[in-house]
Design brief:
about 350 residues, mainly alpha, 13 helices, about 75% helix
């Protein structure tokens, strides 16, 4: 059985599979340097990690939906009304207070991050012979890799990082629950290692990209949330291992492969010049969005003197959140597959 690459072994390995492993290695090799970077270069970590990766990957979705005539027509009603619905829901949530708004959005974001790893795992197992048991077990493994660290976050002592804002999640410190969850996590991890080894001996086949996604997920989520209690480490492992593979998937799967006449616009983005245009676009629009966030809401990196927009937060915050909120929900539709 051939390996189920999305594009080619080299491009898949570098842009989809490697980010999680690369960042884990960087974290372990340069812990002291990261503390220095966090203290003296916070603006650049914000710019490159939050703006140029986390926010930018949201806009990569445009190249699978709104910028593709066939895709837009196929889901015309959804693509038109979902952003409006997200804005309305956002205003309703914000009417209960900013804490409620950001808390709900954080849970939706976590679900989106977890589902992305599940989606990659399913994509890389598409050529395997599936049974109800194997499908269930694969889901159990990937959800364990993502679910345990989040449950650890919920039941442990306060962490030194937030998802969006402090107090996003309902917390219940309980060492007993953590102990039980830890044993379950270890048991499932060991069973995965044993079962994978057994399958290799039995079938003489090892699904490299699927197992790399699973291993990378275990590493990035465990070390980013459980092992290390550091804001920059969490951001690195959370953002890089999520955002870069997503943008790579959009480019490799929806731009590079769709170069027929009906996808003429996407076809124009192929090649080195096309990659540069794609990256430049998502970086530019991400910076524009985050600049508005800064001057209208956060006032942390930039600020506009003599202007106070606090009385408009009930509109500004839900409006500025529309792209990411839509991205979280839209991903549940555009990646559906029977495989």
């Amino acid at each position: 059985m051939e390996q189920p690459w999305i594009d080619k072994p080299k491009t898949d390995a570098v842009f989809i599979l490697a980010p999680a492993f690369f960042v884990v290695a960087v974290v372990f090799l340069f812990q002291d340097a990261l503390q220095y970077v966090e203290e003296y270069f916070s603006f650049y970590t914000w710019l490159f990690l939050i703006v140029f990766i986390d926010v930018a990957h949201v806009y990569a979705t445009l190249f699978k939906t709104y910028f593709v005539p066939e895709a837009f027509q196929k889901r015309r009603s959804l693509l038109i009304f979902l952003p409006i619905l997200c804005f309305v829901i956002g205003m309703i949530l914000f009417s209960f207070g900013s804490l409620v708004f950001w808390s709900v959005l954080a849970y939706v974001a976590v679900f989106h991050f977890i589902r992305q790893q599940y989606g990659f795992m399913r994509l890389y197992s598409r050529k395997e012979v599936k049974t109800k048991w194997s499908t269930f077990y694969d889901a159990l493994v990937i959800y364990t890799a993502t679910g345990y660290p989040m449950l650890y976050w919920f039941f442990s002592t306060p962490r030194a990082f937030n998802w969006f804002t402090p107090h996003d999640f309902v917390k219940l410190e309980h060492q007993g629950i953590l102990s039980v969850l830890g044993w379950v996590y270890a048991l499932i991890l060991v069973s995965y290692l044993v079962f994978t080894g057994y399958k290799y001996v039995k079938d003489q086949y090892f699904n490299i990209p699927k197992n790399a996604i699973i291993a990378g997920t275990f590493l990035s989520w465990y070390f980013g949330i459980v092992y290390f209690n550091n804001d920059l480490v969490f951001t690195l492992l959370n953002v890089v291992s999520h955002g870069i593979p997503y943008m790579a998937l959009i480019y490799l799967n929806d731009i590079q492969k769709n170069s027929t006449n009906s996808y003429r616009f996407l076809g124009s983005l192929r090649g080195a010049r096309g990659v540069l245009l794609f990256i430049s676009f998502v970086l530019f629009i991400a910076f524009c969005e985050e600049y508005f966030w800064e001057i209208l809401v956060w006032n942390e990196q930039f600020a506009v003197a003599n202007y106070d927009f606090s009385s408009w937060q009930f509109i500004l915050v839900p409006l500025l959140t529309v792209p990411q909120f839509t991205h979280y929900l839209l991903d549940g539709f555009i990646w559906k597959s029977k495989q």
